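Lecture 7 notes. Example A: sequence first, then its structure tokens.
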Amino acid sequence: MTNSLKVADLTLTFPDGAETITALDHVNLSVRGGEIAAITGPSGSGKSTLLAATSTLVRPDSGRVELETASGTVDLAKLSRREATTVRRDSIGIVFQQSNLIPALTALEQLEAMVHLGQTFFVSPARRREARSHASELLAAVGLGDHRNKRPAQLSGGQRQRVNIARALMNNPSLLVIDEPTSSLDQERGAAIIDLIVKIAREHNAATLLVTHDLSHMHQMDTVYRMVDGVLSLESANAAA
């Protein structure tokens, strides 16, 4: 069974004094495992809100967010807070605009820490060794095998974002949600990060949502959506073909 994401009729509103703001207005989209759906549009149009809703960080007013994984299909919009936390930890990788790395931890330790999230019991030495091996493999895959023992302050912006991407892959997610990964990088480093995301999405068969303002990479995307005032429209499909 392949990974996939299907968003259907998703609506989310926020109170604004006596009025109501519609952040997501009956949004529909779908993306299959190994494919990338890019979402463009002006600032404040609802792009990041859509990512938050699809990754269970906020709960929509109505609609469905169906994530298909090897263990079945779940509607993320209907999960309790505890259920959402579990699914997010086990099946969703999130790459924020800023790397949000822990200053005191090395690159390797940033990834290893993911194994301990939500655990209320002792992690066995065997599980620790397995996690360290997997973390080392992921760092090597993003080109940071020689930087595993460096802390964030010792890494460049592009390198920190690579650690961020590797960390999001630590639990082999079915869904990758990526918010403006190149916004703080120059053009060359930004292009390298996009190339890496495309490679990672394909290799890990992750259904990937990518919010970006940079239109120069749209030819690498499988589908391109544009969001304006909470309304999402399909601009192109199979753009990478």
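Example B, a different protein, same format:
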Amino acid sequence: MAEMSDDDILAELGVDLAPKKVRARTPREERVIAGFEDIVKFREEHGRVPQHGEDRDIFERLYAVRLDRLRAQPEFHVLLADIDVHGLLEGVDDNATPVEALDDSDLLAELAVEAGPEANITQLRNVRSNAERKAAEEIATAKRCEDFETFRPLFEKVQADLEDGIRASRRFGRDASIDVRDFFILRGQLAYVAEIIGEPIKAANGQNDARLRVIYSNGTESDLLRWSLQRALYKDEGGRRISEPTAGPLFAAVSDVADECDYLPTGTLYVLRSRSTHPTIAAHRNLIHKIGITGGSVETRIAGAADDTTFLLADVEIVATYKLFDVDRPALERLIHRVLDSVRFDAEIPDRFGKMSRPREWFLVPLGVIDQIVDRIGDGSLTGMKYDREAARLVPQDPH
């Protein structure tokens, strides 16, 4: 018997050696498959099919519309049969809008997505990329916060503190810890960690994790893992931690700053007295003070004071300086000037060309009160205060 080759043996066994032709898919079919895979992933992650509704996430609504369209087009059922492991194409949502009555532009318009001339359910315009969508999924699907009114005053207070310089926003990363009652800025929204839900969770890397209830300033909330929130804050270029009012030495005497390397120096608050010989200024020299903030050295700031109307066209004496750390200089300066607005030294000074100028940073206030202001900024209690010129002391500001 002649020796048989491998091909002869396979032929005897009925194995067809001819290569099978694989029909190449069109770009449209590839997009349909990719789009349906997103729907299958949603079903596996959430345990339900995507649903319509204005209260739903934009991507869930997109998936719901896409699924409606695919159900209504039998030609895609065969194409998707192998990956339709949950029988999604066989189901019918009784609450769905009849897709036969809508074209692609109408469907996308319902989702506030602008459709171009070639728009169809597998090509979405003006929607976040896959990378952005995955990042959004990391912070879970937000839902309406039913008891948001309980948290609203907290957000309003933090926002006011930021504007007044009592709190600062810092790039997330230097301190990656996340605890209950912490505030952050995530994707343009203030986020507040309200509570830990349930028991600690052991993460895949062996470290402990926990599910958090996070409230957002837009009235929504989400429950997500601490690690997911950390990663979202890292990836968000605008991700910020909001400091506590007493966190770190917002102020410290320049000669007595400890552990400066732990904080970001952002400038110096200075208190000056004028050496002007003008009778009014000379008579009240110990009461008239200029209070300002500079990002450079105070000595450089006051150089040439005798020729600058900002300094009353006279040399000045440096009374006190305080180094600032992790604060918004302009916001802090506005806060101080607002507190002392009732005793602003209102004077018109002609410059060397005869043009009248009104310096805005001089105040008729004792040095002791300035020290109190500095102390209150340090402990976060200056917001809502004002200087009462009659009582010569700081008092709570009338909210009305």
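Note on Example B: Residues 142-242 form one domain. The radius of gyration is 33 Å.
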